[in-house]
Write a structure and sequence with these properties.
Layout lengths: L13 H8 L3 E5 L4 E3 L8 E6 L2 E6 L5 E7 L4 E2 L1 H6 L6 E4 L3 E6 L1 H10 L1 H27 L2 H16 E4 L2 E4 L5 H8 L3 H13 L3 E4 L2 E4 L2 H8 L5
Antiparallel strand pairs: 1-8, 2-7, 3-6, 3-8, 4-5, 4-7, 9-10, 10-12, 11-12
Helix pairs in contact: 3-4, 4-5, 5-7, 5-8, 6-7
Amino acid sequence: MRPVAGSLLSFLDDAARARILGIGVRRSFGANELLHREGDPSTHVLILTSGWVRVSTSSRDGREILLALRGPGDVLGELAALHGWPRSASVSTVEPATVVQFTGPQFVSAVNLDRNFSMAVIRTTAVRLRDAEGARVDSATLDVGKRVASWLLRLTIAHGERAADGIHIRMPLSQEDIANRVGASRRAVARSLALLRERGIVRTARRSIIVIDPGVLRALADCGPH
C-alpha cells in the first residue's frame, strides 16, 4: 500500500524503505487491538505497513481526545525510543493492520547510521508539529463548524485523492473521531456535517468523506492558505 503523505516512509525511496523495513520483525493485528498504552515505559517502535490506527490521550475527566489517525508508512513510538520517555499516547487499530516492529536500540542505530532515514524522521516530526500547531490555533479561535471545516480541509490536502465526483478522504473516519479531534460533542459535529452536506460541499458515507467543493470548504474554515 502506498505510504500516506507526510508519513515516515513517504520521505524514503523504495530501496531505502526496503532496507529499513528489513531490520525489524513483521507483525499483524486485528481491529480494535491496543498497540501502545499511554504511560507505559516500552521503547519498541512500529512502522505501519497497512491499515489505520487511532492515536489518543485521555483528559483529566476521562474523555478521549483523538490526536491523530495514522496510516501506512507512519511511525509510532519513536519518541520513547529516542528519548526514553513513557508512551505519550495510546495507539489502537481501527481495522486489521500490519507493522514492522523495531527494538529501541535498532531504531536509534538506524537514525544514527543512515542519514536519509534520520532526515525522514526529522521531516515527519516537522509535519506533525505543524499539524499540532494548526489544531491548537483552530481550537482557540474557531467555532465548531469552522473547526470541522478546517480539519476536513487539512485532511483533503494531506490525504485527499481526486476522482470524478470530488476529493476522497480515504480514512476510516467516524463522527466520533471528528468530535474527539476538534474538541466538540458528537451532536455538534453531526449538525456541522449535515450543514456541509445540505450545501453540497461534502458527501459522507460510512467512514468515508468526499469533498465536492474544497474552495467553499476553505472559505467556511476561514483559515487562509495551508
